[in-house]
Amino acid sequence: MSASNKPVNQKAWFLILPVLVCVAFSAILPLMTVVNYSVQDIISPERRIFVGTEWFVAIMRDEELHGALLRQITFSLAVLLIEIPVGIALALSMPAQGWRASVVLVVVSLSLLIPWNVVGTIWQIFGRSDIGLMGAALQGLGIEYSYTGNAMHAWLTVLLMDVWHWTPLVALLGYAGLRSIPDAYYQAASIDGASKLAVFWYVQLPKMRGVLMIAVLLRFMDSFMIYTEPFVLTGGGPGNATTFLSQFLTQKAVGQFDLGPAAAFSLIYFLIILLLCFILFNWMQRVGTQAKETDHA
């Protein structure tokens, strides 16, 4: 029997069977439950009425959803515009080797180790004008700061909190990308007399493109699903100033116990994240391909 006709051993598929089972119980089955709720009006555990797409139509016409979606997109874009450049700058300023590099890596990573609810509590205290360092400092400068009474202050505080919490992730990814660049590139740039700006623009930034794409996607998805930190800090207020999509969903499902509309919005929420990440990923890949073609030209 020739090698091409040799039977293929299919037993290796059994090795991924536990993974398939875990995915089924953690993702597929809950998703199918949500789909089931989204097309029914659950009057009681024993009585349900099939309503089709009625909940989807009602949710899409909800003005509160439109406001929450606008706040969410604005917040996520602000997060990317701040955290990506600051993270790159922080990665560039970190020492490359030695004991100082180890110390800086540990210090930079500290905020990532703090649980989300603790982060919200820390900033809740930090922003208070009576005992909080930031709140008292702003009051001392004559700024009437109140994250519980001023909508803009609350939104900016949530943004600043997210920047403090997650910029180190971008910095660590950028740092890993920088350390993977061979020394030959820096030696060639030194021989050509390239400036630091030229080295960054033509050597470091292109070589960091892969890790930066991961950083952008991770931060976009995380910021688009933010819930715990603003809930602990402001509870979604004042008014609806910091009520993002995840809190809007929680209010529907838990606060009002509207399981049908909440399930419909869960699917819409999932599709929005999936679509935006798909668009963002393809756009970044296209930019990367065009940059490579320009370099080769």
Written description of the protein model:
The chain is mainly alpha-helical and 297 residues long. The chain has two domains: 17-50, no CATH class; 62-296, MetI-like (MetI-like fold, Orthogonal Bundle). It contains 13 helices and two strands. The chain has a two-stranded antiparallel sheet with strand order 1-2. α3 (63-93) packs across α7 (151-179), α10 (209-224) packs antiparallel against α13 and α12 runs antiparallel to α13.
Number of strands: 2
Describe the sheet with the most strands: 2 strands, antiparallel
Q: How much strand?
A: under 5%
Helix content: over 70%
Main sheet strand line-up: 1-2
Any descriptors?
13 helices, two-stranded antiparallel ribbon, 2 domains, single chain, MetI-like fold, globular, 297 residues, mainly alpha
